[in-house]
Amino acid sequence: MGICTSKKKVDENIQIVPYKVCITAFIWNKESHNLFDFESNQAAKKEIELDFSATLSMVDNQIIALTDNEYVNKQIQLLRVDCQQEYMMLSGMSQKSDQRVWAILCNRPDFESLNEWELQKGDMIKLGRMKLQLLDFNYEIDALQQQKEQVENDDELQSKDLELEASQCRICFSKSGSLSNPLFSPCKCIGSMKYVHLNCLQIWIQQQIKIKNQQSSIQYIWKKMECEICKMSLQSTYTYQGQIFCIMQIQKPVVPYMIWKITSDDKSKEGIIQVMELLDKSEIKIGRVPDCDIKLKDISVSRSHAIIKVIKQEDNKYKLILQDNNSKFGTLLYAQSDKLLRYELQYQQKVLYQIGRVLLYVQLKEKGKSYNKQFTCYRHPNQIQVFPKKTINEQATIVPNFEKDKDNQLSFQTHNELNQDDIVINVKQI
Fold first, then answer.
1. What is the pTM of this model?
2. Is residue 314 located within the same domain as residue 284?
3. Which of 238, 283, 306, 335 could cross-link with 103 by S-S, CB 3.0 to 4.6 Å?
4. Contacts from 286-292 at CB under 8 Å and sequence distance 24+?
């Protein structure tokens, strides 16, 4: 039957901290595309407390905390809780879209969370089944001119021929690259076909793009992009060292603008890059109805789902403030910032997280006189059998659905980021 570790005394290798991590979880039915209806009361409430670093998992609709030396059959890993003496950090366990850690923007009587969030370049938000990533944002005219001049300077600093014979563009056969036009590997091709210039790929890919001009905005729409040789699906954007490379030729306005990448959980739907001019705009509406500035044609998106407020500051710079508009499924923000994931006793924040079909609240509480380094406040549920790990092969892992997520299993697409071996700039691979 195995060993059930329900005793309160813990192994001496486990560090007990002087505070309790109090977790409240709400679990709802599977058949909802991982969307939580804030207007319903169908979620089961679970509560646990722990005082050591652990992996938070769901087993048979129960939430449990497992150390690195424990595993449970058929668990779904949700969240890593790293407890230090002075603070606690949260981190996600999966890069799959439906298992990422999302912070929810909402303000409802039963579910209090963030009221607003200042958007930064690279932030990703989720509205129903639609995902939006802020690729670029510029509100300074002088900075736009400087950016253009910087690109021209980068082109003048193109490198000499690379020493590696294979490191050449498969389209133009040149071996030089620059910061604005690097050689990179966007697919599974190897050898002399591995690398391609960003600009060369942009010219080739433009044949598969539909461009739609709207009032004060342009949309670049694609259905499917793939390598003509290895047939691997291409991402529309890649990230390397904090810089986002887009494989489409995007015309940036000479006036203040923002650029959004719009995709859907429904793989059959089109992807969109939307470039918006921001002259005299103080508010940007996102929703399903025609009068929204960013229109999302999906029934899971509310008619007026969210609002972005454009606020001018004293230094003549601008900031973008995202707010939910009492939407049915909430406005979700991909939790990457320490502001969302770090907790301290002196600074209590209230953030509602969503991971799959689970909502989570986290709160720290002092133990006071009950603090003892040898005993934990946590107990496993009696009905859950927890086993000690014996070998690396016995570790409980999430078994991926390769048919459903096959595009996410290839090359670097899991993280949508380029590795050092995937990009060449200035005579060497970096």
1. 0.80
2. yes
3. 335
4. 286/127, 286/132, 287/325
